[in-house]
Amino acid sequence: MASPLDLFITELDKGIRTLFADAHSRREHPDTHMPDNDMSESEKLHAARLMRINHCGEICAQALYQGQALTARDPKNKHAFAEAAWQETEHLAWTAKRIDELGGRKSLLNPIWYTGSLAIGITAGLIGDKWNLGFLAETEHQVAKHLDEHMEKLPPQDARSHAILSQMKTDELEHADQAIDHGAANLPLPVKALMQLTSKVMTRSSYWI
Predict the structure, then answer these.
(1) What is the pTM of this model?
(2) Are the CB atoms for 130 and 185 separated by under 8 Å?
(3) N or C terminus: which one in the chain shows less Cβ crowding within 10 Å?
(4) Domains in the chain, CATH or no CATH each
């Protein structure tokens, strides 16, 4: 059994890798065979900022699942969080590559959002597995809605970014379904509202910073 110090070092390493190392994807990038259509500089800038928000969201998801896996009680739930975290790593790879292609940059606020999301994930896990899973399910449903909004806001000709977000939405909804199948509780409305408010703060700030 790992000591507290070993566990701390392992989790610190995960955080550093998430924030600063290049993410990798086991699957082919969804936009690999999509055309790279012409866009104006303003359209590229807007698309890059939208993808930056989505990249920041995946940073948050990594931290959230890391915290939830740390405090989940049921080994099956720990496995579910770990598998979801891997797909979020793929999303990190996809969005980071697209940001670079569009000439953008990642959010400077990523370390702040990572730290906050890790704390939320740990707290959710400590409350109990059914609420932990409920938080995961609600998070993924809100993310899927957010991805729909971004696909509408993308320049119409940006087929590559659209393909990435579409596959991400499919994955997020699968995560939500898995959480529900594992016994997720339905969160109270005030908690859902607070999650939505936090998400708005993150998306608006990450668009610019």
Answers:
(1) 0.84
(2) yes
(3) N
(4) 44-208 (1.20.1260.10)
